[in-house]
TrEMBL record:
SUPFAM superfamilies listed in its UniProt record: ALDH-like
Recorded name of the encoding gene: mmsA
Function per UniProt: Catalyzes the oxidation of malonate semialdehyde (MSA) and methylmalonate semialdehyde (MMSA) into acetyl-CoA and propanoyl-CoA, respectively. Is involved in a myo-inositol catabolic pathway. Bicarbonate, and not CO2, is the end-product of the enzymatic reaction.
Catalytic-site annotation from UniProt: C288 (nucleophile)
EC number: 1.2.1.27
Name of the featured protein: Malonate-semialdehyde dehydrogenase
InterPro entries: Ald_DH/histidinol_DH, Ald_DH_C, Ald_DH_CS_CYS, Ald_DH_N, Aldehyde_DH_dom, MeMal-semiAld_DH, MSDH_GmP_bac
Record field: catalytic activity: 3-oxopropanoate + NAD(+) + CoA + H2O = hydrogencarbonate + acetyl-CoA + NADH + H(+); 2-methyl-3-oxopropanoate + NAD(+) + CoA + H2O = propanoyl-CoA + hydrogencarbonate + NADH + H(+)
Length: 488
């Protein structure tokens, strides 16, 4: 039987409740990172496509802002139900377009669902404040109102969770939304939009415009887009923050990271090594909360031996295989970048104790690398300073906790940091002095849940109000103060 090769679909944009062909005609391939197989094509939309989406979202806002908050929340309850019902399907889609392990993808979907859960609390979250008698016979009240059209720009590494950090809460607060998914992982966004419509969202409330720089710039420059949520790499985060803020928009821009884990001499070495292995090499190190630098305090040779043993034993492969921990990186170009980082580590004198360039010969189709570990890395080396975003781990040696904390202070990034110890005094010192926004005590990935802010510091975040939690509500609403006199 002859097989006719199906033509790979070019994804459509979702504007005003309809699937529409972008005005721009060019598109790029979306390969499955584990197999190299092209699974979709993503259109590279232009500013005219953005214009259409903004017009739809602006029109939808006129009614959506007046929909009673409990009614808005009910759509989110339904959405929560639908996402839960499709949990496995969504996780498989994450694996197909991002490459991470199914277990990780399943967890990511769960994290996304929790954001919807949080946003469904909008009636309570959006409550204002009142104070009677601020002066004689005078009362004050604060009400929250949405901004209007909000733009969200997402990275490739969490195609489910990051968009769900953004649009459910923004929309629950009464805004309408335009999502620009990563062009490297665009498929899930369309499924999220489909299910949102099935949950009862009116047309134009959530729109999806696929593409790259032009769509981003279109959103940053459009006067009808009032706020921007961005998550991505550091240079782009800073650019987005500066350009959108210069245009008078409210912006939150979550950025890159270099997360340090401090291993104290009293730590349970086996458990600490296990946590570090899954933090550094799970999702191929492509998590903004991944451990990418370990500070080994004291004579850490025994710990390093244990870490190497566990790294040597981890299984590299396709994320759909149960036992696999280390999955492919997102693109061949990213793999090349990482290979250059390994070269730079060697040139600058770090000691390579696990060489990820080897051991993946039978995985030629996808973008695979083994685990790489450098020991005796100095803080001024490139592999100590830069976010490499892949399965490369740098070990720095320190005499004391003070010295370890100094490495964290000197890093330009401050997303997360962890300490492994049983010593309460060390824990307290770490909590008080570690210069980062999300700390772990014996926890490998101290990412916060939907009801707390995702709280990076320094160059890991540009803006004021973070995503999620009360910060998220404050970000997506503006306050109106009423001062009333009654003796008139
Ligand atoms: P990226 O910066 O390449 O892309 C993010 C988004 O910006 C994409 O939608 C992309 O189309 C757009 N973009 C890229 N270059 C642009 C440009 N020059 N002008 C305008 N728009 C542009 O990021 P990525 O590689 O997709 O994601 C990985 C990065 O995201 C890592 O640095 C990671 O640390 C970071 N990240 C941070 C957090 C956090 O919470 N701090 C969470 C997830 C990911």
């Amino acid at each position: 039987m002859s097989m006719i090769k199906q033509e790979t679909k070019v994804l459509k944009n979702y504007i005003n409740g309809e699937w529409v062909e972008p005005i721009a005609t060019n598109s790029i391939d979306v390969p499955n990172p584990a197999t190299g197989e092209v699974i979709a094509k993503v259109p590279i939309s232009n500013t005219e496509d953005v214009e259409k989406a903004v017009a739809a979202a602006k029109e939808a806002f006129k009614e959506w802002r007046h929909v009673p908050v409990p009614k808005r929340a009910r759509i989110l309850y339904k959405y929560h139900y639908l996402l839960t019902e499709h949990h496995e399907e969504l996780a498989k889609l994450v694996v197909a377009e991002n490459g991470k392990a199914y277990k990780e993808a399943y967890g990511e979907v769960q994290r996304g669902i929790e954001c919807v859960e949080f946003a469904a609390g909008a009636p309570t979250l959006m409550m204002g404040e009142t104070l009677s008698n601020i002066a004689e016979e005078i009362d004050s009240e604060m009400f929250r109102y949405p901004h209007g059209v909000v733009g969200g720009i997402a990275p490739f590494n969490f195609p489910m969770m990051v968009p769900l950090w953004m649009f459910p809460l923004a929309i629950a607060c009464g805004n309408t939304f335009i999502l620009k998914p990563s062009e490297r992982t665009p498929m899930l966004a369309n499924r999220l939009a489909e299910l949102f419509t099935e949950a009862g969202a009116p047309r134009g409330v959530l729109n999806v415009v696929h593409g790259a720089h032009d769509v981003v710039n279109g959103l940053l420059d459009h006067e009808d887009v009032k706020a921007i949520s961005f998550v991505g790499s550091q240079p782009v985060a800073k650019y987005v923050y500066s350009r959108a803020a210069a245009n008078g928009k409210r912006v939150q821009a979550l950025s890159g990271a270099k997360n340090h884990h401090i291993v104290m001499p009293d730590a349970d070495l086996k458990k600490a090594a296990g946590n570090i292995i899954s933090s550094a090499f799970g999702s191929a190190g492509q998590r903004c909360m991944a451990c990418s630098a370990v500070v080994v305090v004291g004579d850490g040779d025994e710990f390093v031996k244990e870490l190497k043993k566990q790294a040597d034993n981890l299984i590299v492969g396709n994320g759909m295989d149960d036992e696999v921990l280390l999955t492919p990186v997102i693109r061949e170009s990213q793999k090349e970048k990482l290979l250059n980082y390994i070269e730079s580590g060697l040139e600058e004198g770090a000691k390579l104790i696990c060489d990820g360039r080897k051991g993946t010969d039978d995985l030629k189709e996808g973008y695979f690398m083994g685990p790489t570990i450098f020991d005796h890395v100095k803080p001024e080396m490139t592999v100590a300073k830069e976010e490499m975003f892949g399965p490369i781990l740098s070990l720095l040696r320190a005499e004391t906790l003070d010295e370890g904390l100094e490495f964290i202070r000197k890093s330009r990034y401050g997303n997360g940091a962890t300490i492994y110890t049983k010593d309460a005094k060390a824990v307290r010192q770490f909590r008080e002095e570690a210069d980062a926004g999300m700390l772990g005590i014996n926890v490998g990935v101290p990412a916060t849940m939907a009801f707390f802010p995702f709280s990076g510091w320094k160059d890991s975040f540009y803006g004021d109000l973070h995503v999620n939690g009360k910060d998220g509500v404050n970000f997506y609403t503006r306050k109106k103060m009423i001062t009333s006199r009654f003796d008139y």
